[in-house]
Write a structure and sequence with these properties.
Layout lengths: L2 H12 L4 E5 L11 E7 L2 H14 L3 E3 L6 E3 L7 E5 L6 E5 L4 E6 L4 H11 L1 E2 L11 H7 L2 E2 L2 E2 L4 E8 L4 E5 L17 E12 L2 H18 L20 H7 L6 E2 L2 E3 L7 E3 L5 H19 L8 E3 L4
Parallel strand pairs: 2-5, 3-5, 4-17
Antiparallel strand pairs: 1-2, 6-7, 7-13, 8-13, 9-10, 11-12, 11-13, 14-15, 15-16
Bound molecules: flavin-adenine dinucleotide (FAD).
Flavin-adenine dinucleotide binds next to strand 3, helix 4, strand 9 and strand 13.
Length: about 300
Amino acid sequence: MNSVEFTYDLLREHFPADVEILQLRELTTWQTGGPAVSVTVTSSGMLADLLGLTFREGIPWFILGQGSNVLASDSGCREVIIRLSGAMSETAWYRSENGWDLIIGGGVRLPSLSGAACSRGASGLEFAIGIPGTVGGAVFMNAGAYGNSISDFLKSVSVLDYTGSANTIAGEECCFGYRFSRFQKERAVITGIKLSLGIDDPAVLRSEGKRILELRRKKFPLQYPNAGSVFRKPDEGIPPGKLIEDAGLKGRIVGGAMVSCKHANFIINTGEATSDDIAELIDNVREYVLACSGILLKEEIRYLGRRN
Ligand SMILES: Cc1cc2nc3c(=O)[nH]c(=O)nc-3n(C[C@H](O)[C@H](O)[C@H](O)COP(=O)(O)OP(=O)(O)OC[C@H]3O[C@@H](n4cnc5c(N)ncnc54)[C@H](O)[C@@H]3O)c2cc1C
């Protein structure tokens, strides 16, 4: 029995209705990646039990949101994929005199949260309307756009650590930086957050949301599977898209993966790309840009499973 089968059987004993073997290509926006054992978790109690079990049995895990920032191995992964759903995908809204306080599950999707905030007249999250991730993924990455990041509105983060113990961390203690949070250095699941938003006219907020979506449609190759920006902005401050374009790499192809002609920091799956194609193209781009500009680009995307 291989390790995936062992893990599957063990988890099925404890969570019979919630464990399945899925293809990672169904769970990632690049639409690539092989098989993995997946558990859909519907409450923090269930998550605590699962983390306790994986800790005792030494089973590795990976928490996956919408997979919009992940390159998953073609051969799948040993890690159990944990996905948040049910009570962990709900939002509670509280109107105060000066604004809105929200308690949001880690599995809530950012575009629907942002849309709902605009419709209620809760201001601040308009920037997030086109970011296709979950709240947990957004906090982990400190996702942002158009001058705002999720951390700007965050009061606190609820987590379960790798043993299943719960903790609440104040926003100031999350070590937020550009596409960085302390959670990138810890083994913890972000189960929920508290946010504070302002108040504005819903019509104004909806029109700002529409404007942002329109800008993104014009700028990004959204008709192809992709994972947003592949590389982080380097310390030199030059946008990676410009460095890649200046290196003459727009339209460069490896297998089914291509550097987008519309936005050079996007790698698109033209139809039949594998994760290996994408990984090889990422390596190519990094090497060419280094040779042309002397600047070493680092990935923003996260890897899941072994690279061949
Ligand atoms: C078309 C497109 C446009 C994009 N535009 C932007 C943009 O404007 N700005 C921006 O910042 N990003 C952007 N992204 C990237 C991506 O959407 C964000 O990084 C997003 O926050 C990732 O969320 P996710 O739920 O998809 O996380 P995933 O991709 O599933 O995971 C990313 C990382 O977060 C971790 N993680 C996920 N959920 C949790 C959790 N609950 N607890 C602990 N760790 C967790 C994962 O383990 C993984 O390491 C874009 C992506 C696409 C495809």
